UniProtKB/TrEMBL annotation:
PANTHER family: TRNA (GUANINE(37)-N1)-METHYLTRANSFERASE, TRNA METHYLTRANSFERASE. Residues 158-188 are annotated as: Disordered. InterPro entries: MeTrfase_TRM5/TYW2 (IPR030382), SAM-dependent_MTases_sf (IPR029063), TRM5-TYW2-like_MTfase (IPR056743). Pfam families: TRM5-TYW2_MTfase. It comes from Dendrobium catenatum. GO terms for cellular component: cytoplasm. Residues 169-178 have a biased composition (Basic and acidic residues). This is tRNA (Guanine(37)-N1)-methyltransferase. The keyword Transit peptide does not apply.
Length: 315
């Protein structure tokens, strides 16, 4: 059944028989997006129909959004057009690990040119099988008058603030909602007026992105292995990205045990991890978000060169 839902000023069209949606996670969507700044680059590994990607694009971020389910990508593109943010987003229909590797693979053309920007494109994969339901079928997924380079400069000047030590656990609070719907709505409203009708330049993502959303609570922790050796020290510029990884915590597990698992996967200590309790999903099971900055030990020295790029087309 095709329907439309509204969430914090965004409209989402979807078919409940083909994609996943949970309106109870509305506040978490906006709570995370409220941490983003206009001009930042966001990678959404399990984007679904866009509960994070659409509001992030509305805020003036540039979003690289991926999902394995082609139905989710179809509605993501539809929703991007409905909300007039299609020029702020690239949609990918790929395996999540391949998606991140593809973004970070430096092509020969990039090595031979100083060009920083190109046209907005949408990557497609023609061999992805059609599946019913979201790619996260083992879980309950959560639901410009400025250029990217200007936004990147803004992000770099505020990176030290984001990197300050935070409490080990954060609490659900009213501030995130107020920041997004009140103060930031006026600011971002003016920002969106400036960018309306303007085609966002595409950042060279292998050099910098600011946030990675891993919205796959039952399995996202297993996908962290893709970040070991993913970023190339030679090309990376600015602060390392913040990762936001959703997971389920059961009664026989602790935040410390989860952190140990993450550190073992990345083979590095995680400085200043932030655990946020999203909601209880069962008497002995809760959904959490772990946010942390990718450790510098994850950078790789050698360069990866790719002869070609996957087929791409306009959104």
């Amino acid at each position: 059944m095709i329907t439309e839902v509204k969430q914090y000023g965004a409209t989402f069209k979807l078919d409940f028989s083909l994609v996943y949606w949970n309106s109870r996670l509305e506040h978490e969507h906006i709570r995370l997006v409220s941490q983003f700044q206009p001009g930042e680059a966001i990678c959404d590994m399990f984007a679904g129909i866009g509960p994070f990607a659409i509001p992030a694009a509305q805020k003036g971020c540039f979003v690289f959004a991926n999902d394995l389910n082609p139905h989710s990508i179809h509605y993501l593109k539809v929703n991007a057009k409905i909300n007039k943010v299609e020029d702020n987003m690239i949609a990918y229909n790929m395996d999540a690990r391949e998606f991140m590797r593809h973004l970070m693979t430096v092509s020969k053309s990039e090595l031979d040119t100083d060009t920083q920007l190109t046209d907005i494109l949408v990557a497609k994969t023609n061999e992805i099988p059609v599946v019913k339901g979201p790619s996260e079928d083992v879980t309950e997924p959560l639901e410009t008058g400025t250029t990217y380079k200007e936004g990147l400069h803004y992000s770099a000047t505020t990176a030290h603030t984001a990197a300050k030590r935070r409490p080990r656990f954060s609490r659900e609070d009213k501030k995130a909602n107020d920041d997004f719907t009140n103060g930031s709505s006026q600011r971002d409203g003016n920002f969106k007026k400036r960018i309306r009708g303007y085609k966002f330049p595409l950042p060279r993502i292998s050099e910098h992105f600011d946030h990675v959303i891993m919205n796959l609570p039952a399995a996202a922790l297993q996908f962290l292995d893709v970040f070991k050796g993913l970023l190339q020290r030679r090309y990376w510029k600015g602060s390392l990205p913040l990762l936001h990884c959703y997971f389920f915590l059961r009664s026989n597990e602790t935040a410390e045990s989860i952190l140990q698992e993450v550190e073992a996967t990345l083979q590095s200590k995680i400085p200043d991890p932030v655990f946020h309790r999203v909601r209880d999903v069962a008497p002995n099971k809760a959904m959490f978000r772990l946010s942390f900055r990718l450790p510098v030990e994850s950078l790789v020295e050698e360069e990866k060169v790719k002869d070609g790029k996957p087929s791409e087309s306009n959104l």
